[in-house]
Amino acid sequence: MARITLICCLLLGCLGNSLQAEPIKIGLSYPRTGNYKTEGLELHRGALMAVDAINSSGGLLGRPVQLLTRNSASRAQNARNNVERFARQGAQMVFGGATSEEAITAGKRARQLGLLYFATLSYANEVTGREGHRYLFRESNSALMSARVLGEYLGWHMPRQRYHYIIVDDTWGRSIESELRATTGSQDRARHGRSALPSSSALRRHYLDALHKAAASDAEILVLALLGEDLRHTMRLAHNLGLHTRMQIIVPHLSKSIVQQAGPKVMQGVIGTESWTWQIPAQEKSPAGQAFVDDYIRQHGEYPDSAAASAYSIVQQWADAVRRSASLDSEKLIQALENHRYSLLKGPQQWRTFDHQNVQSIYAIRVKTRSQIMQDPLKQDYFEIIHQMSGEAAAQSHDDWQQERGEDLVLH
Predict the structure, then answer these.
(1) What does the alpha-carbon distance between residue 234 and residue 261 come to, in Å, rounded to a whole number?
(2) What is the pTM of this model?
(3) In this predicted model, what pLDDT tens digit does every residue of 278-318 receive, in sequence order?
(4) How far apart are the C-alpha atoms of 349 and 284, rounded to whole Å?
């Protein structure tokens, strides 16, 4: 008995020593304020859960992991400055962001400083396409992946429809519009009209002008390629104008937070995409995914969003690469990540070698009716999955990627 007690004391002592060692720092740049602050909250929660899980298991390389955070306010220059601040504080990796401009700008600065950068809510093709490089990895899906699953579903169920697009005039907005037009056969702008909102500081009159133009068209499908507060304001105004009664509304990237902010009644019947929802672990028989959902509910009293899942997965995957390479060196971690296949919060995923895009299944989803939502114990069961596409079918091919890159055919 005394020997068992001694062994337990030694083990506890080792664990205590590991958590008293110099921490391994990682930096999360995310919006605490601005257009995407609600999504930022989800990113922060997911990151904290991953760090807590790692530290409760003894840390990493015998050291605890410490999460550093800074507000980006969804601005590219802020994100770049955050990377520099994290580097001065000794961070070994940076992740986050809620726009593609953030990912591109922050990722470039991270490369100059020798740090890996993992993009979260950054959907423009350019992130891992024309602007991609060795030190940048993207966990979220691309605009093309969303467009392909939506295009296939709409082609099967709503063929030969007239479209109207309202986009935010930024990298992602232009990217998703281009891809959706291609996958739905709505490239003819004379037939399928559009309006573009300013990328920052859009006003109520901008939203109304765009919606009145859509209302005056003969469109049967209204695509709102918007995110965050822009989407919330536009959806409420569209509902007040009654556009939902005469058009099928498509929101390419849906999230729990936007349904909560705009309201289930306003969002009812809207179709979009997600790379993960809280129902996916049960559907795809993922014990780790279900444990994440259960733990999130226990801590926060609500279901996790895909943003939380993305941040959690990034931290866990980076930590896994550190363990497998037994190193914090960025080059060794790149080698450990490239072509790595894994399952964590859903079915199989892969960090692709040639572009560092995470290849994973993508889902078309529809917002349930308010009466259906209210039957759920947490009253947050917002989405039904209406279509699914494998990551291999949805992601850009190597040949198309090289065509986009021109003469720059490998990551540097």
Answers:
(1) 12
(2) 0.93
(3) 999 999 999 999 999 999 999 999 999 999 999 999 999 99
(4) 12
Quick check: 100 and 143 in contact, CB under 8 A? no
Which residue is listed with tokens 């994973």?
Answer: 360
**Domain hosting residue 104, numbered range:** 13-141+282-357+396-405
Query: Does some domain include residue 6?
Result: no
> Is-contact 318 118, C-beta < 8 A?
yes
Question: Per the domain annotation, does 2 fall within a domain?
Answer: no
| CB contact set of 30 (below 8 Å; sequence gap of 6+) | 40, 43, 44, 69, 71, 72, 96, 97, 98, 120
Q: Examine the domain organization and report whether 188 and 137 are in the same domain.
A: no
Q: Are 211 and 253 within one domain?
A: yes
Judge if 108 and 150 occupy the same domain. Answer: no
**Helices and strands (DSSP H and E) totals, the chain:** 17, 15
CA pseudo-torsion sign 156, 370, 228, 71: negative
Token match 């940076």: residue? 94
CA torsion angle for 387, 273, 169, 190 (degrees, to 10)? 20
> In angstroms, rounded to a whole number, what is the distance separating the alpha carbons of residues 145 and 288?
25
Residue 372: CATH number of its domain: 3.40.50.2300
Residues in the chain where the model's pLDDT stays below 50: 1, 6-7, 15, 18
Pair 41, 91 in one domain: yes
Determine the pLDDT at residue 17.
Answer: 52
- Looking at the DSSP bridge assignments, the partners of residue 119 are 96, 138
Give the alpha-carbon dihedral of 369, 297, 25, 57, to 10 degrees.
-140
Measuring CA to CA, which residue among 33, 48, 38, 34 is closest to residue 314?
Answer: 48
